[in-house]
Amino acid sequence: MEIRNWRESDTEVIMEITRITMESIVKEAWSIEWEKVEKDLRKYWKKPNIIIKVAIENNEILGYFCVEIQEKDLFLGQIHVSPIRQTQGIGSQLMKEIENIALEMGYNSILLNVQANNERAKNFFEKRGFFKIERKEFDILMRKDL
Q1: Counting beta carbons within 10 angstroms of the beta carbon of residue 1, is it exposed (0 to 12), middle (13 to 18) or buried (19 or more)?
Q2: Which domains occur in the chain, in start order?
Q3: Which of 53, 54, 90, 109 has its CB 3.0 to 4.6 Å from that of 64, i.e. a possible disulfide?
């Protein structure tokens, strides 16, 4: 498996991975339609302070992450792995890459928001050293110190 920088041509595949993994959680938590989320993500991914990398094997995108460069912390906006490739260590490898980026950029911590109703994601992050900082209406702010 290789982790490489996102290309514009990857957009539809990573959007579909995101939709498959998040659509029902988003509808339940926020009561909004996927089309709005998709429109917002497309804008977010084009911001100049965003880094997106994709995990590739045999020219197939297996997953991706999106981090936002902020003043004090690196913020993990999204990390998703194709459902048929989950539990194969891809998410863990993506997390290692995120930590490497954070350290190379001089950050001491990584922040993220996880949907409060997404138990699987909360467990994934907690197993990797993230802890809860604050509960919000629909999500939980978590941090990992590096």
Answers
A1: middle
A2: 2-145 (3.40.630.30)
A3: 54
